[in-house]
Amino acid sequence: MKKIIQLAFLSVLMAFQGVAQADVAQESVATPQTTAPVQAVKSNEEIRQWYNDAVAVIPTLNEQWKKDGLSAEERAKKAQEIRHHARVEARSMMQNKQEVAELQARDQEKYGNPDGPTFEFLVEKNRLKGLQGDAMYEDIIGSSNRTNKEYNEKYGVKKEAQSP
Amino acid sequence: MSNVSLSACLKQATAWVKTDRAEFPYTAKINGQTWLIRVNDFPEEPLYTLLIENQEIGSFDDWSTVWYK
Which residue, A3, A39, A124, B17, shows the most beta carbons closer than 10 Å to its own? Predict the structure, then answer.
């Protein structure tokens, strides 16, 4: 009888230890999720490289959108959305917030929007340039992947993203 | 003027003065010449362009450590 009680006590103890260990394991899994990811400090040149890579996918996507039957306007909107998102993301990576403020002031003055031109702004700009119909939208799709070629060549900034 | 290189300018200690123009936020007087900074369409374009006497000298992304603003 004494042996049975000892065995029962031992099994309860082992079960308690198992629960305690599971709690510890859960905590160690949860810890990394609550810690903010460490981002490497990037120079503006590196951020520009990142942006080039981010928008380099647009021509490939545009071909797919054409196959999917999207209109020029729909494709232009999608391309502009990618470009705009990458622009905002790139600026959020900048270490010097005064430089970000300078960019936003410049964009506000030029486009009436601190985060760059809106789709409607670009359409109107192209209309004033004399473009009509799909040409207005194709120009926006093209400009979504048009970076300063001369600068990129001079400073070795490359478009690394490749088509799948 | 054509002999002026951007890299040489970036190495010259310069005290910049704030303007009230968003696109051209900084100016400096160097040896009697007016230096001007233009903010570009970053990240689509390089962040800054240096102009001396209204002539573009070059564009760059990262502010010189010896340029004070």
Answer: A124
Instruction: ipTM value, please give it.
Output: 0.93
| DSSP assignment letter at A89 | H
Q: Is B65 part of a structural domain of the chain?
A: no
Q: Map tokens 């917030």 to a residue.
A: A97
Testing the interface with A: which of B40, B57, B61, B69 to mutate, by most A Cβ within 10 A? B61
Mark A79-100 as b/e (b = at least 16 C-beta within 10 Å). Answer: bbebbbebbeebbebbeeeebb
Q: Let me know if residue B1 belongs to a domain.
A: no
Domain hosting residue B23, numbered range: 6-60
Q: pTM for this one?
A: 0.74
Q: Report how far apart, in Å, the C-alpha atoms of A57 and of each of A15, A46, A51, A86, A158 are.
A: 55, 18, 11, 12, 13
The 10s digit of each residue's pLDDT in A96-140 is 999 999 999 999 999 999 999 999 999 999 999 999 999 999 999
Tell me the chain A residues in contact with residue B6 when contact means C-beta distances shorter than 8 Å: none
DSSP codes joined into one string, A2-48: HHHHHHHHHHHHHHHHHHHHHHHHHHHHHHHHHSPPPPPP--HHHHH
